[in-house]
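Colleagues,

Please find the record for the two-part complex below.
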Amino acid sequence: MLAEAVELVPLALTADDVEVSLLDVTRLADPDVTAARFLTPTELEDYARLRHPARRREWLGARVCLKTMLLRRRCVTDPTQCEITKDAAGRPWLCFAPGFSGAVVRDCSLSHKGRFACAAASSLAATRVGVDIEEISPRLLRLDRAFAGDHDRPIRPRSPEERLALLWALKEACAKATGGGLGFALGAVECEETAEGRHRVRTADGREFRARHVVHDRYVVALCLTEDEAWAAAQ
Amino acid sequence: MPRVLSADEKKEIYEHIREFLSDELDVPLESIGRDTKIIDDLKGDSMIYLELVEDFKKKYDVKVEIALIGRYLQKHPVYTVGQTAGVVYDIVERGDNLLASEGA
């Protein structure tokens, strides 16, 4: 069974209606063979356009991760029965082959960094999701004042590297939920940890997001949820 | 006063961006051109843009809030090296007035 052949790491971010999993891309079998098995013809064209081998592997890993989650949920019986496209804002969007309903998965999000690819799949009707994974590394230290502010309030002290990886992952996850891109993440966004691993993220214009995070093997994974009735009605 | 970059200064910035990306992402300099996509072609990430901007803010002594740059980037998304150079020109030339001519 293809769904069992891929080893996913389920994360504690998973709840009844939102599933988040990780895939170690270094353990992916031959990428080109995997791509041929998992991707639709259009996705294969996109894959072929990626020049950097490591970028190809992580791009593929995120899609294999999401499609394996769909296989296990029995949304599809073959990974080529759904295609991951992008909407006008650049957010990933699932298109299912005729006969397969997308009702079970209303929204999705993808991320990758270093060893891991990550995917979130949500069956919540009017909720956008965004997921981001960041490595806890000293790289972030030189950017401390650039994106972390005094208004960002973690619930307990963490190492500077972990605090910065967490803040960046939260802001990126919210940017992905909204489709706001890097500009959103760099904007006036405040993160408040309300309980261990649970966050409230606010923008200067008053929007508010719910977020959660976990740390897995020196990587922070953040999940952001935001209600959007207008978006849901347009689907 | 708004600053106006000369053609030579713009070329210097563009070349500095290529060198920065070559060093940080460990890719050959000759593989980086104006149309090169930073994430798809060079395996950059969103943070590399922030690192570049911070580097140029220091180099040109530009005082501009990162949140303002964030608002600017929401109006001007960047994917390629050429687009990134254009953003850096605007940041250096306009500073705190980055969005002044755009009704923001």
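Helices of chain B lie at 7-25, 46-59, 66-75, 81-94.

Comments are welcome before we finalize the supplementary table.
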